[in-house]
Amino acid sequence: MKKTVIRFTALALAVCLFTGCSIANTAGGESEADRKNVSGEAVSGSVAAEDDGILAGRNQNFQENSNCRYTIAEDDSYIVQFNRAGKQKKKIRIRFDIDAIEWVTDKWFYYVTDRGDLWRMPVKKTEEGEQLLTEKKEKVLEGCGEVQYATDLYVIADVWINEIPVLCKYNCRTGKRTELVTVKEEDDEAQVLWGSGYYPLMWQGKLFFERRDKLCLLNPEDGEVSPLHTFGSSEGDWEDTYILDHFVLKGDELYYTTVETENLYRLNCSTKKSECVMERKECQKEVRRLLYEDMDIEDIWCELMWLDQDRIYFAFDICWTEKDKTTGKKSACYKEELFSASVSDLTQLRHEDKLMDYLDKKSTVKKGSDVTANEILGGSDGVIAAEYHVYKQEKVCESRYVIYDIRTGEIRETAGKDMLENYEELLY
């Protein structure tokens, strides 16, 4: 998953306000000398290592630090704080503009406003738990795009420069801005890869990013870019679109599908060798064999993919045509099915019967309707979120949500509000 897709609105808004980011004076937490040192000067090319903290490669939700996770209420009136186990601790009332959480560290809470400005507020540790010092908030950047990574002292963010999004590093203490990836053409931007658990994919402390026909690694500390893989013509055509579609990382191995072929590939980041481990046609053949052997399936495509323990989960959209017994008219039918496969043998798909049977029994959407009977919302840490639909009246359809624990097999229904607050990362 790419964070750019998830929150494209904020990024688009930024380009309307500024063609570049300017550094704003900060209030509190900085010396007068530091504040006067803010210049916003851009530096292209390699970056000298700075004494501003070490980037700790972490695969955790960008809304989390080592103690808590934060979300914003639907009406934007308060911030909800949870412990790492997912239990709500408290609601923090806010009386200022906050559009989205951008990053949380153990010392700072970064957020963006409706105008696309990046702010932050200190995180204080107390005996009662973490506190957000809302009265000490400070502006970091004006007109900034979305944050791809952050530490206590700097942020890695997309910035619109000459109407092109450029991956930059900002030192919050000195105000120094550095272009990490030099971009000169509109179709040459660096697209950072984000996992389904709401975190940027990292390998050995380096960020993955896609650029034209190449997959690269970026060391945020010194700005070094290392080419990892050049996509072949059999994988896609970068002139039309980004090549990567879905991707997950397990150890040294990156599993990915491409938009054009939908084949599944495995790239060893150490050896830089890539191989196709599951062709789309073979995958479709297996899906048909397991579930739809007697049906005339028109198309099967992957809608979602994520990794949990040693298994990769695939949510497939299935399309076929059926004739109405009463009217005789043909109509397209759609259904989503969940499968998984062990990374040791990706050719052996397993249909997730328990969850899918539950959803099928609960949903009441009619065949031929433009509303799918159910939808897999995502998975993380042994939990899968799903949605099914029921008709209360002839044309009124309601959504119901369930949480499935793949380790215990427990399925429980949950309210939409609970889904937003407790399983927000599973909704994308």
Q: Can you give a write-up of this model?
A:
The chain is mainly beta and 428 residues long. It has helices at 3-6, 8-17, 32-36, 280-291, 353-362, 416-422, and strands at residues 22-23, 42-43, 68-72, 78-83, 88-93, 100-104, 108-112, 118-126, 129-132, 138-142, 147-150, 154-161, 164-171, 177-179, 191-192, 202-203, 206-211, 214-218, 225-230, 244-250, 253-258, 264-268, 273-278, 297-308, 311-323, 330-342, 345-351, 374-380, 383-391, 397-405, 411-414. The strands form 7 sheets. Strands 1, 6, 7, 8, 9 and 10 form a 6-stranded antiparallel beta sheet that branches. A hairpin with a 5-residue loop joins strand 30 (397-405) and strand 31. The N and C termini lie close together (8 Å).
Q: How far apart are the first and last residues' alpha carbons, in Å?
A: 8 Å
What is the C-alpha radius of gyration, as a whole number of Å?
23 Å
Low-confidence stretches: 1-57
Number of helices in the DSSP assignment: 6
Tell me the β content: 35-45%
